[in-house]
Every structure is written in structure tokens, then in C-alpha cells.
């Protein structure tokens, strides 16, 4: 019974402690998630495909409310569609570098709302299992990124982050035709927040 009470006390402390951060605090968050993306063009959009998102983000705090979030994230983008009765999936793999302002809110600062831009670099492109020839998809895209998350504090220097991150392409990814294609989607993630 004592062990159960101790465990409940530790969990309740994790949900009630204020997470005030001083200027210069630095956190790193390795994360993994489930993503869903589609391609949008002037005629509509493809169906969503799904994949795994993983990487690590960092937060540098300017005060207890604002931080700068960046990092390196692997994203599977693209979409699914039918063409003359056959099903196809564009599998576009990117390395993204989010550059987001991150606002920490709530009385305990456990919630965060972030927004900014994300330069992304194409590292692989296939339709189904066939490699897309180079010169078909642009190797660089820029997107508007945004998200919301909640951090569960385990100790003063470690927590678990649950968040949603959205992506809306700002640049055309199509290299060969006059049709403008943009990636759009998001991911649900879980990560371990480590204060350094």
C-alpha cells in the first residue's frame, strides 16, 4: 500500500509542478510518430498515405514562455491516387529542419503551441516500389509548420512530450509540368524531453 501511495504521489507531482524555465535552458527531444500526408494541386488532392516520422528537436528558452524549436526530422510525404483504374502511391522522403517559435502556456507551462517554417530536402522518391527519376520532383521544398503539445514531467530534467505537428507546403514540388503540387499533412508524435 505504501508503494502505491508513493507512486500516486510521484505521478501527481508530475502533473502539478510548474515547468518554469530560465533563459538559456536547452532541451532535446528524440521522437517518433505516425504521419499522414497528401499532395494538393489546383484540381484537388490525392488520398492520404501514412508513414513513420522520427527525429529529434531542440528547444532553446528565451524565458519561461518562449523558446526557439529546431532539429532534424525524417518525414514520409506524398499521397495515394488512382490512374486509369490502377492504384499508385507517391513515397516522398524528406529531411526537414523545423524553425519554430514555441509558446509555452498554462499555469504549469506544460502546453506548447509552435509555428514557423520548415525547409525540407528530398532524400528519396518512389511511385509504389519504382524510383522516380531525378529531375521529376524538386529536391527542396519550404513549408509552414505548426503544432500543439503537452509535456508530462517525470523528473526535473526528463519528461514525455505528446504532440501534433502540421505541415503545409509553400512551394511547388513538381519539376516537369505546369501543375503546382504541394505536400500537406501532419503527424502525432511521442518523445522524451531531456533538459541539458
Task: Report on this structure.
The protein is mainly beta and 196 residues long. The chain has one domain: Porin. Strand 4 (66-83) and strand 5 form a beta hairpin. 8% of the residues lie in helices and 65% in strands. Mean pLDDT is 90; it is low at 3-18.
Annotation field: number of helices: 1
Helical residue percent band: under 10%
Structural class: mainly beta
Number of strand elements: 11
Low-confidence stretches: 3-18
The secondary-structure element order is HEEEEEEEEEEE
Oligomer description: single chain
CATH structural architecture = Beta Barrel
Strand proportion: over 45%
Topology readout:
Layout (H helix, E strand, L loop, with lengths): L1 H15 L9 E16 L2 E2 L3 E13 L4 E18 L2 E11 L2 E7 L5 E17 L2 E2 L8 E16 L2 E12 L12 E14 L1
Antiparallel strand pairs: 1-2, 1-3, 1-11, 3-4, 4-5, 4-6, 5-7, 6-7, 7-8, 7-9, 9-10, 10-11
Q: Which descriptors would you attach to this protein?
A:
196 residues, mainly beta, Porin, eleven-stranded antiparallel beta sheet, 1 helix, 8% helix
In short:
This protein is mainly beta and 196 residues long. Helix content is 8%, strand content 65%.
Amino acid at each position: 500500500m505504501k508503494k502505491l501511495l508513493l507512486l500516486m504521489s510521484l505521478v501527481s507531482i508530475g502533473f502539478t509542478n510548474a515547468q518554469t524555465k530560465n533563459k538559456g535552458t536547452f532541451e532535446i527531444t528524440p521522437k517518433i510518430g505516425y504521419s499522414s500526408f497528401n499532395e494538393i494541386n489546383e484540381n484537388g488532392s490525392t488520398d492520404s498515405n501514412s508513414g513513420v516520422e522520427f527525429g529529434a528537436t531542440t528547444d532553446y528558452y528565451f524565458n519561461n514562455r518562449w523558446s526557439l524549436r529546431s532539429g532534424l526530422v525524417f518525414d514520409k510525404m506524398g499521397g495515394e491516387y488512382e490512374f486509369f483504374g490502377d492504384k499508385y502511391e507517391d513515397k516522398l522522403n524528406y529531411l526537414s529542419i523545423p524553425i519554430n517559435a514555441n509558446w509555452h502556456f498554462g499555469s504549469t507551462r506544460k502546453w506548447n503551441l509552435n509555428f514557423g517554417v520548415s525547409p525540407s530536402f528530398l532524400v528519396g522518391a518512389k511511385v509504389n516500389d519504382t524510383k522516380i527519376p531525378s529531375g521529376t520532383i524538386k529536391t527542396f521544398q519550404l513549408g509552414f509548420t505548426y503544432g500543439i503539445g503537452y509535456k508530462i514531467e517525470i523528473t526535473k530534467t526528463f519528461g514525455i512530450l505528446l504532440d501534433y505537428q502540421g505541415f503545409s507546403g509553400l512551394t511547388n514540388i513538381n519539376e516537369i509540368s505546369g501543375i503546382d503540387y504541394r505536400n500537406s499533412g501532419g503527424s502525432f508524435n511521442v518523445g522524451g524531453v531531456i533538459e541539458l
